[in-house]
Write a structure and sequence with these properties.
This protein has helices spanning 2-21, 24-34, 36-48, 52-108, 113-143, 148-199, 208-218, 226-253, 258-272, 281-288, 292-304, 320-323, 325-340, 344-350, 355-367, 370-377, 381-387, 395-414. α4 runs antiparallel to α5 and α7 crosses α8. It is built from 18 helices and no strands.
Length: 457
């Protein structure tokens, strides 16, 4: 005990002397450095003389803190590994979802019901996987107290990944509901038409041709027949008249010279038909008599029916009708039945580059000249969309699609019949045949006088 006190008193005296002889900084740098060996021995003796209880206390306090730091570090590493694994699972699920959706798009064009069902099941399965991952993260975030902050960040990231797919599912549900409502409305209209036709069997003023049209429309799924072809031809006429009226109204709204426009159209037609000589004075007479709409309708019909005698309107060199005629006739009538009740705009929204889509694009570009479109609408936006393989959603193009669909259905029905109906075109000045032609001039009585000639081919 005396040695301990002596050593401690010597150490105090040395420190006091150093502080008196030198400043505090110099004492630290000089005296302690000079006497480093002796001080080290004294300090080591002092440390060795400390009680064992204090050393144990320090070990418990300091050592325990180190263990806690290690435990927290290992826990963070585990959490980071779990998050990385979860994100890899999310990325894998999203990649599989993209692959399944690409398969769904491929099944649309060309249309394959079997592939459509398989692709639909695959897409739904991947969406369910994403939903399972989302629920797993939500449970993990809500389970641990200290991990709640990190889990919330991961949960938010997962919600951002899944949110677009959830929105797409909601949109599809809305579209399904809208389609169901549309189907119900069509069923009501059909039942009203059937009841009205049954209740008005004795009504006067209904012509035989209209009665045949109504019956053929109700029995469209039966089999291809000449009466059905006649009814479809009537629909083509009505659609052509409607589109011609819309085009003529737009031309008048744009302050076109209708007579000059019709003369240019007819002059181009005359130039194309070199074997026929026509006096241009007759063109002026037709436009001055207020028959410009018939000349415009004749021009549109000639463009729409160009290539009608070929199975694909000469869009390709297919010869299916010659190689396997029976099967081709059945396929044409199946397409006719499937397409008859469809909206052409919706069909082209799904399959913009199908044969019908290419037909519409070609005919639109043939009928509507770039200068005409720019004059009517102020730009060439619709033409650019058509050239890019898309189909505009404008009222004008929708009216055109109605006419194009009617012509396409007539074409399918024509190639469903055996033998295929023949087509001919009468040029201007040819003899008028009332059995095959219609007169735009109203004569007293029903019959058209003899020795009449064709004015609008």
């Amino acid at each position: 005990m005396a040695a301990k006190v002596s050593n401690f008193s010597d150490l105090v005296q040395r420190v006091a002397a150093s502080c008196l002889l030198h400043p505090l900084g110099a004492g630290r740098n000089g005296e302690f450095a000079a006497n480093g060996a002796g001080d080290e021995d004294d300090f080591s003796e002092l440390e060795l003389d400390e009680p064992e209880e204090e050393v144990r206390e320090e070990e418990e306090n300091g050592g325990g803190g180190g263990i806690r730091v290690r435990e927290e570090g290992s826990r963070k590493e585990v959490m980071e590994m779990e998050m990385e694994m979860a994100m890899w699972e999310v990325f894998d699920a999203v990649s599989a979802m993209k692959k399944a959706y690409a398969g769904l798009q491929m099944a649309h064009s060309p249309w394959d019901p079997v592939k459509m069902r398989a692709a639909d099941v695959a897409v739904v399965g991947e969406l369910r996987k994403l939903g399972v991952l989302r629920e797993r993260f939500r449970r993990r975030c809500s389970s641990g107290g200290g991990r709640r902050g990190g889990g919330a960040v991961v949960g938010g990231t997962l919600r951002e990944v899944v949110a677009p797919y959830e929105a797409a599912v909601e949109e599809l549900k809305k579209e399904v509901k809208a389609k169901e409502v549309e189907v119900d409305n069509l069923k009501e209209k059909l039942s009203s038409v059937v009841n009205g036709s049954n209740g008005n069997n004795g009504k006067k003023g209904r012509s035989i041709s209209r009665r045949k049209v109504g019956c053929s429309q109700l029995q469209v799924v039966a089999a291809p027949a000449p009466d059905l072809f006649v009814a479809t031809m009537s629909q083509v006429k009505e659609a052509s008249k409607s589109f011609t009226s819309l085009l003529l109204s737009l031309m008048r709204a744009a302050h076109w010279d209708i007579a000059a426009a019709v003369r240019s159209i007819e002059a181009a037609t005359v130039t194309a038909i070199t074997a026929t000589s026509i006096n241009t004075s007759s063109l002026v007479t037709t436009t001055q008599n207020g028959n410009a709409k018939y000349a415009l309708q004749s021009y549109i019909s000639s463009k729409m029916f160009q290539g009608f005698d070929h199975e694909t309107f000469y869009m390709d060199g297919s010869l299916s009708s010659l190689l396997n005629p029976d099967q081709y006739r059945r396929d044409c009538f199946t397409q006719y039945r499937d397409m008859k009740a469809m909206d052409p705009a919706e069909l082209l929204g799904i399959l913009p580059t199908c044969h019908f889509g290419k037909f519409c694009s070609n005919k639109y570009l043939a009928i509507v000249h770039p200068k005409m479109e720019e004059s009517l609408f102020g730009d060439l936006d619709q033409r650019r969309q058509v050239l890019d393989g898309n189909h505009p959603r404008s009222e004008f193009y929708s009216q055109f699609l109605g006419m194009a669909k009617a012509v396409w259905l007539l074409h399918l029905l024509a190639f469903s019949l055996d033998p295929t109906p023949s087509q001919f075109e009468a040029t201007r000045g040819a003899e008028f045949h009332p059995h095959y032609m219609e007169s735009v001039v109203k004569f007293p009585g029903v019959r058209v006088p003899s020795n009449q000639v064709v004015g609008f081919p």
